[in-house]
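tool_call: predict_structure(chain=1)
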Amino acid sequence: LSINYIMKIAHITYHYQPIVGGQEVYVKNLIGILDKEGIRNEVYQPINKNYHYFSKRNHDNVKLVFNLPFLGRFFPVIGRYLFNFFLLLHYFAFFKYDRIIVHYAFHSLPFWFFKKKIIIISHGVEWYVDGKTINDKISHLIASITFNRFKIVANDTHYYRTFDLDVRPGKKYFVEVGKNKWFIPNCVDLDIFKPSESIKELINYNIIFVPRQITWDRGIHLAIESFYLFSEKRNDYILLIAGSVREKEYKKYCDSLVQKYNLGLKVIWLKKIDNLQMPKYYSSAKITLIPTIRREGTSLSALESMACGCPTISTNVAGLKDLPTVQVNPDPVEISAKMIECSSRLQELSRNQSEIVRNVFNYENWKNAWMNVINNTFEQKKDK
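tool_result:
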């Protein structure tokens, strides 16, 4: 590279603006570290109901891809297919980029002939492993046929084991675990996520905190059922659930569980909290619970919580196995028992988990690993 050359990277993602979940935060954080390295980043995302041509004026690096969002009301999964189709309208624009980072293998199909430029990011297995729907089968098929064609960065080892690559959970962080396959877990900004002043309104409560989007996969119902059993022995706690509602019918089901167990005064629902305010909530809680039942990478919520010194319990599914959380089977009886056990050793857990997160899951390690991938792939391109 000449000293004046500016590397240009395109990010292909179905979710970015507005930022409401873990994938969006990942894109934002990755762009942030690459920007600091002098790399120019542009993001291709579909128009959605909350982000369109009139709202993108504050994000010069966003390239909006045409979409038909109203069809999603009738065909919930069709948006991903339309995104792939309309990406083809931008096909010739991608020749100017040195790298094309594709978030999820599903969206790599329009770039089949850009083999040397492509880096696929897996944020976790995106299909139901036991699913039988056509969409699940298509998603798995696409991931299978692209697995050995493109370079892949996965933020959990579960993704690789799905394709029979022998990588044990929680091992080989930030390294190449197979040919052109890297394991780079999620990491957190330790300047933001650290022990903070508690929220005054919550200071007198013992809180179990569940920072999750309201969807079936994220296991909110499991948290409610577990908390009901837990509160039979520890009735001095409340359950605080914070996240955007992605599935309205599921939220109604969770509300019915609260009513069924007579927990109306002990379960508090909050809307999505601004990311910069999250350290205060983690620092106000006694325990954070990540009750995922399927499809998760190395959860940012879990890492953020532990970085803030809040003892964190998670189910032992998918990418959560790669984290230093207290892990338990996705069963309400077992989770409630683990919550009772952990409530008696909060300081020990806080200290141990926080130390591991700060030593391993930090931005410096994340940046170095990502720059290694990008420089490695660029050198391969030059050599050929």
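agent: Residues 311 and 347 are 8 Å apart (CA to CA). Proceeding to next step.
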